[in-house]
Write a structure and sequence with these properties.
The complex is a heterodimer of chains A (210) and B (425).
Chain A (H helix, E strand, L loop, with lengths): L1 E6 L3 H14 L2 E3 L9 H7 L4 E5 L8 H11 L4 E6 L6 H7 L4 E4 L4 H12 L13 E2 L2 E2 L5 H11 L4 H7 L4 H15 L4 H10 L11
Parallel strand pairs in A: 1-2, 1-3, 3-4, 4-5
Antiparallel strand pairs in A: 6-7
Chain B lengths: L8 H28 L2 H26 L7 H7 L3 H28 L3 H9 L4 E6 L4 E4 L1 H11 L6 H8 L9 E4 L5 E3 L5 E9 L2 E8 L1 H64 L8 H12 L11 H10 L3 E5 L6 H20 L5 E8 L3 E8 L12 H12 L3 E5 L5 E7 L7
Parallel strand pairs in B: 7-8
Antiparallel strand pairs in B: 1-2, 1-6, 3-4, 4-5, 5-6, 8-9, 9-11, 10-11
The chains are: A alpha/beta (210), B alpha+beta (425).
């Protein structure tokens, strides 16, 4: 029977996932853990076939980073990243880390079981895009990829000059992107832009890399 | 060619008078040059005196028809063409002109006592030199003026004035901004002055500088820093609030999900019962799940991640963790130690194949220490610090602590952190 490990720090979500997995009768649960920092430990002490991994977990451990490490050491273990946060970079980061599938918590119970089944069958299941979020006057999918990159640095508290240097663009371009985002969203200044982006979960700055 | 002797009496007199004037001016300039001791001036002036002096004496002797009249030198000069006389005369005049210009130039560029005094008097900075007993040697207008404004009296004994500036009584309309070794005052006109004293060989120097602009900028900067600090504190609070908010929102969404699933199950069942349609079935799976959900005692709020959580997790996977001592209460150190414990636990199974992890926590007057050991096999080669251990070392050392890995007599990882350290781990 497929052995499933759940890495999730929110107790309610953890219990629900455990329930869904148990109820399906197709899987065997290994004890769930609260932090992605334990994921490798679990894989080394017991047989794990599939991991349902949250992104933001206890001890500020990032599920995607942990998944990457596990994929390097145990390529046979399938990993599904699960998250309730619509942060726009998660899907791309998960793909880069070699994660098998990706699932948003907002979807129904059946869908996770379905995704688990397909993943175990060797498929890679990703949502087509991040669920669009209301961001000022627009939805988040109306921002360009470059604007999102700049927005991420603004949320991290970088100055325009630092952003320009980090993203290899001119200061004028950075200012242009910020102005364009302000025009689209109707936010009054860059602080409001940063606060709203963080508040609605569009951008989550990794605490460890801050 | 015409000689001196052939000139008319009037022309001879004019030449002699010219030479006499030249001689007088040369002698005057020579005395001035000797005072200045400048060879650039002395040499040409001396030449000028020599030429004009000897010419005057010789021509005058001829004119007086005295006993010298028939001397060889007098005859020689007076019988030379008049052009020779004019050339000599011009040479002396040129030398004299050169000396005059040169002297004027020196006077402009090399300062003397009076020029020094004058320029110090008009300095915008206050300046005073005084002997060790307080006797004033040199003081300028600005310093005198400041002394009057701040202390209400003349600057007579500079040592006493300095003592008063550093802490004595001052005029009521003056605000003292600091009393350390650099007293600062705000005057009634709004300007800010900073005084300082320097010891020179055998004397002291007091300077007073107008730092109004600097002072105002510093104050502005200080206020901005306070505002920034407040903003930073608010952002920190906001960061925590946002986390709580995000978690609450997620929880709410989960609850909505449970609620709607239960609702859909009820609706499907009701539709089955009412229509009695044979094509429809009771959603058994959904019911099973909903009932199990309702039976379960769902915990809403996550508990703080502690060492206890780590022990429980490890035990659940068959690794026993033994702890001696207490976890520090200082939040930043606790967080770092928890991270280290997680890393040590993973390393114990990854490299040593251990079954037991021993954590020992000790505390001295100024440090917290955590030490990890396990019952697994010893490392065969030197331990290389990868991502996990490297990151731990960086965090510990940034916050003023240290990390140590020992392999003898057995493997141990020790981290020491200073008490009351930074919050930036």
């Amino acid at each position: 029977m497929t052995r499933v490990l759940i890495v999730e720090d929110a107790p309610m979500d953890r219990q629900l996932l455990e329930l869904y997995v148990k109820q399906s009768g197709q899987y065997e649960l290994v004890p769930s853990v609260e932090s992605a920092a334990f994921a490798e430990f679990c894989c080394r002490t017991t047989r794990v076939d599939l991991i349902l991994m949250d992104v933001c977990t206890s001890l500020y451990a990032n599920g995607i980073d942990a998944a990457e490490k596990i994929k390097q050491n145990f390529p046979q273990i399938k990993i599904i990243i699960i998250t309730g946060q619509p942060e726009c970079s998660f899907i791309e980061r998960a793909r880069k880390a070699g994660v098998d599938s990706f699932w948003y918590k907002t979807e129904t119970a059946e869908s996770i079981l379905h995704v688990m089944e397909r993943t175990m069958a060797g498929e890679t299941v990703y949502p087509e895009s991040t669920p669009p979020l209301q961001f000022g006057y627009i939805t988040s999918d109306e921002l360009t990829a470059r604007e999102l990159e700049v927005l991420r640095e603004v949320v991290a508290g970088e100055s325009d000059a630092a952003i320009a240097e980090k993203l290899y663009m001119s200061l004028r371009t950075v200012k242009g992107h910020i102005q364009s985002m302000r025009d689209k969203t109707g936010f009054r200044n860059r602080t409001e832009l940063a606060v709203r982006a963080r508040d609605c979960g569009l951008i989550i700055v990794d605490k460890e890399t801050e | 060619m015409m000689t001196y002797d052939a000139l008319s009496f009037l022309l001879k007199a004019v030449i002699r008078f010219g030479l006499y004037m030249l001689l007088c001016i040369s002698i005057y300039m020579l005395s001035a040059s000797l005072r200045k001791k400048s060879p650039v001036l002395i040499v040409p002036t001396f030449l000028s005196v020599l030429i004009s002096g000897s010419m005057f004496v010789l021509y005058d002797a001829r004119g007086q028809k005295s006993g010298l009249d028939h001397r060889a030198a007098v005859r020689w000069l007076c019988e030379k063409p008049i052009l020779f006389t004019i050339l000599l005369f011009a040479a002396a005049a040129v030398l004299l002109t050169y000396v005059t210009f040169r002297e004027a130039h020196l006077r402009r560029t090399v300062p003397d006592r009076s020029s020094i005094k004058e320029s110090i008097d008009h300095l915008p900075t206050g300046l005073c030199f005084y002997a060790e007993n307080g006797r004033v040697m040199l003081v300028n207008h600005r310093m005198n003026q400041l002394c009057h404004i701040i202390l209400g009296r003349d600057l007579q004994n500079a040592a006493l004035v300095w003592d008063d500036l550093c802490g004595g009584s001052i005029q009521p309309d003056i605000m003292r901004l600091s009393t350390d070794s650099q007293p600062r005052f705000r005057l009634s006109d709004g300007t800010v002055w900073s005084f300082s004293r320097t010891q020179l060989p055998d004397m002291f120097q007091i300077t007073a500088v107008d730092i109004t602009q600097l002072h105002n900028l510093a104050q502005e900067l200080e206020q901005k820093n306070i505002a920034l600090e407040e903003l930073y504190q608010r952002l920190k609070v906001y960061e925590t609030d946002v986390e709580v908010l995000t978690r609450t929102r997620e929880r709410l969404e989960t609850k909505i999900g449970i609620h709607s699933e239960l609702g859909q199950t009820l609706l499907a069942t009701r539709s089955y019962l009412l229509d009695n349609n044979e094509n429809k079935t009771i959603p058994v799976e959904a019911w099973k799940r909903s009932i199990a959900l309702l039976r379960q005692n769902i915990v809403e709020n996550a508990e703080q991640f502690t060492l206890q959580t780590l022990i429980q997790t490890a035990t659940a996977f068959g690794i026993s963790v033994e702890v001696t001592g207490q976890m520090p209460e200082q939040k930043d150190v606790e967080k770092l130690f928890l991270e280290a414990a997680t890393e040590a636990l993973t390393n114990a199974v990854r490299h040593a194949d251990a079954k037991k992890l021993h954590i020992s926590l000790t505390e001295t007057a100024d440090t917290y220490r955590i030490c990890f050991q396990n019952d697994g096999k010893m490392p065969e080669t030197q331990v290389t610090e990868g991502g996990g251990l490297g990151s731990l070392r960086r965090k510990a050392e940034t916050a003023g602590g240290s990390m140590q890995i020992d392999c003898h007599p057995e493997y141990s990882l020790t981290i020491s952190m200073p008490k009351g350290g930074t919050e930036n781990i």
